[in-house]
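Hey team,

Filing this mostly as a record. A colleague (T.K.) asked me to run one chain through the structure pipeline before their review meeting, and I want the input and output archived in the tracker in case anyone asks later how it was produced. No errors, nothing strange. Just documentation.

Input sequence:
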Amino acid sequence: MEIRHSTEEDFQQIMKIYEYARHFMAEHGNPNQWGPTNWPPEELIHSDIAAGNSYVCTYEDKIVGTFFFNKGKDIEPTYDTIENGAWLDDSPYAVIHRLAGDGSVKGIGSFCIKWALSQCPHLRMDTHGDNIVMQNLLQKNGLTHCGTIYVEEDSYPRLAYEKVNTV
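Output structure:
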């Protein structure tokens, strides 16, 4: 598998992956994270591509996964306030959002997380409380549950995770 920046030519395949992910989440007990709002919206994906923060995971030249990735100091405003816990580290960090695969290849999520950690040794992610599949993926990849955050898109609390690799 390989990771590369998304291009506008990838847009339709990215949206197909998100459609698949919404159905997958609903079938696995998580209908509310992306389903009711048909998340993520097309405009957001176009914006992510233009900003250079949209990535695709390819396997044998086929796009099999996608995600948002960014890194820096205080890059995610929704992470400024964490309840029922605390972040492990206050240093600059990377964030992955909207991680999804098309179901055709096993291990996409772990591959993308490991790639992100190779770009920045400090990673934060969050997920819906009903998203047991993602919670298991995060824990399997060594991320620690740190508390609860809230996003602008809806009123559901999100479980916040973090991993800090020491160099």
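Quick notes for T.K.: The helical segments are 11-27, 42-51, 108-119, 132-140. The longest strand covers residues 62-72.
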